[in-house]
Amino acid sequence: MKKLLNTLFITQPDVYLSLDGDNVVLLKEQEKLGRLPMHNLESIIAFGYTGASPALMGYCAERNISLVFFTMNGRFLARVIGESKGNVVLRKKQYQVSEDEALSAKIARNFIVGKIYNHKWIIERMTRDYPLRIDVAQFKVVSQQLSAIILDIRACEDLERLRGLEGQAAFSYNKLFDSMILQQKEDFYFHSRSRRPPLDNVNAMLSFAYSLLANDVAAALEGVGLDAYVGFLHRDRPGRASLALDVMEELRGVYADKFVLSLINTKVVSKEDFLKKENGTVMMRDEARRKFLAAWQNKKQEKITHPYLGEKISWGLVPHAQALLLARYLRNDLDEYPPFLWK
């Protein structure tokens, strides 16, 4: 159980939620795990759906407290709300901002600042941890380039220029990605990003990791009442969760890229885990996907201190924290959307 931004997160499996007065009570096999006053809660988010009492659902509906259920893997299941009060206002504001490119750019640039800042500190960590195995001078040059681009982005008010600056930063970062692969170099290498289809083992893993991250972020956005398909940087396209792609930008490197690199460098995966088809497409074998998913779930349980909130939370709750912060910004509770800045 974790309270964060007036939201109660329940991450233990097989927990039943009930009501006792003005308190939510957590029960597991009739044993009381905890209770918390509800007078300051805005939402309750439960992972590993077991159930909630009708009394609790009615209490939440009457007081506009959203009750949200996810699977233990983070897939969105359902959201119980009463009359459409704050939720409809939030989505209307999201749609209004999305239609205005200048307002969209103000939010989008913070997503990209977060992404590039985190890429910079991935690079800096490499120079600190592996100075004898990489070209430190080259890494420092790219780090300085990324710092300069961040300054340009902070002053940018145009979406098209913002995308150009993001592209420059991605090009510089990707030049170093192969150097961050320290083991199994014959079988795992990165020359450029290939998406549809992935053409090598590393790109196959990156595509899978990005897909998992996008799903986690989309679920978190739905959980707070935002529309995952209406973005600010990524514009509307049928079937594309544009806002999820926006928010995950700042987490791509520090969450997905580092995860893929760790699987390679610790030899959790090997060349036998991949299959190359006749058209050049590289796919992960079923057993490799199972290993990947198990490691991904373990990663989500690791604890970090959230850089903006100063609270210790699991990696799996980071997308939910960012979704809450974005919703607060759109409700004018924050002057600026605070990106996730890892160091």
Automatic annotation (TrEMBL):
MF annotations from Gene Ontology: DNA binding; DNA endonuclease activity; hydrolase activity; metal ion binding
Quaternary data: Homodimer, forms a heterotetramer with a Cas2 homodimer.
Function: CRISPR (clustered regularly interspaced short palindromic repeat), is an adaptive immune system that provides protection against mobile genetic elements (viruses, transposable elements and conjugative plasmids). CRISPR clusters contain spacers, sequences complementary to antecedent mobile elements, and target invading nucleic acids. CRISPR clusters are transcribed and processed into CRISPR RNA (crRNA). Acts as a dsDNA endonuclease. Involved in the integration of spacer DNA into the CRISPR cassette.
EC numbers on record: 3.1.-.-
Protein name as it appears in the record: CRISPR-associated endonuclease Cas1
Coiled-coil spans in chain: none
InterPro entries documented for this protein: Cas1 (IPR050646), CRISPR-assoc_Cas1 (IPR002729), CRISPR-assoc_Cas1_C (IPR042206), CRISPR-assoc_Cas1_DVULG (IPR019856), CRISPR-assoc_Cas1_N (IPR042211)
Cofactor: Mg(2+); Mn(2+)
Cell cycle as UniProt keyword: no
Lineage: Bacteria, Bacillati, Bacillota, Bacilli, Bacillales
